[in-house]
Design a protein that fits this description.
3 helices, single chain, two-stranded antiparallel sheet, 4-stranded antiparallel beta sheet, 6 strands, about 45% helix
Length: about 100
Amino acid sequence: MLVTFKSRASSDVAYFKEIATDLLALLGKDPTASQGIFTVEQLDSAILTLKEAMNVDKSAPAVTQKNDDEEKEEVKDVRLYQRAFPLLTLFERSRTAKQPVIWGM
């Protein structure tokens, strides 16, 4: 199932439910709700929280796995800072345009 974040300020951003619920919980929203809103007034706080979490994740060591065929290590998972970037962009554009962001399944 997908959760889609929408705003009149930018294109929609969609995530698989597992990822969206993690992001919503991080941002202080009820991850079990089927829909919700980030008001214009809430966007500053959401942006700050998301940037802080992204910076912490970016500075943490990546999980790597050695490939037996080669002596090369590969990063196997997409990190939080990579997943959250489209949502951060949507929030920033929405704040600039003074538009709320709604989300729903």
